[in-house]
Write a structure and sequence with these properties.
Elements (H helix, E strand, L loop, with lengths): L6 H5 L4 E3 L9 E2 H20 L5 H6 L5 H10 L8 H14 L8 H12 L1 E3 L2 E2 L5 H7 L23 H8 L11 H18 L5
Antiparallel strand pairs: 1-2, 3-4
């Protein structure tokens, strides 16, 4: 509820995701995309939890909470700007040129919004989400430059280092790997892109 009723989430309705080349479909925006990803993520989590042959793997990975996957999916695009990855790259270059080493990255901005910028309580910064939800939001669980193979993606700015470390304490043994709930959120994002977003062009 903290996510769905936040102004940050509602803003996504004004950020275009996909525009169909005909009038057969409505314009697909980041809000509809996020709602679909949340639904798919919860479905994937529930489906895995019914699999007796996966029980030991799930327990070893720290468990799966479908509500955590759903919440992370709702939050995953909060920091992405209008005009997609082109704008993201441009913002990054502008900020780096201005002397801000962290630059701009949509996933890191999402993490900043839920931990610092979003407003739930006047005396508490951010949306006051659970540690599990924050960890599940970290599709790229490292700061800028920490992953040698993925230098253009990161999940948190250094200004949110304390919140990032706190979230990652849930899964300290996995290093730069995502948590199982973050993996489900990322898969749901990929499924939605392939089925709903690209489907608008068919």
């Amino acid at each position: 509820d903290r996510l769905v009723y936040s102004s940050n989430f509602q803003r996504l309705g004004r950020v275009t995701q996909v525009v169909a080349p005909n009038d057969r479909f409505l314009t697909h925006n980041r809000l509809t995309h996020s709602l679909e990803v949340a639904q798919i993520g919860r479905g994937l989590a529930n489906s895995l939890l019914t699999r007796a042959d996966q029980r030991d793997v799930i327990v070893a990975a720290g468990g799966i909470d479908p509500s955590v996957v759903e919440a992370a999916a709702l939050a995953h695009d909060l920091g992405h700007p209008p005009f997609g990855h082109v704008a993201e790259r441009e913002l990054d270059q502008l900020l780096v040129n201005a002397g801000l080493a962290d630059g701009y990255e949509g996933n890191a901005q999402s993490f900043r919004i839920v931990t610092k910028l979003g407003v739930r309580y006047p005396e508490i910064p951010g949306l006051n989400l659970t540690r599990a939800t924050l960890n599940a939001l970290l599709k790229y669980p490292w700061e800028r430059g920490e992953h040698p193979d993925k230098l253009t993606k990161w999940g948190a700015y250094r200004s949110e280092d304390a919140e990032f470390r706190w979230a990652r304490e849930l899964t300290p043994e996995i290093g730069l790997n995502v948590s199982i709930e973050a993996a489900l959120m990322a898969w749901a994002d990929d499924v939605d892109y392939a089925v709903h977003d690209m489907g608008a062009f068919v």
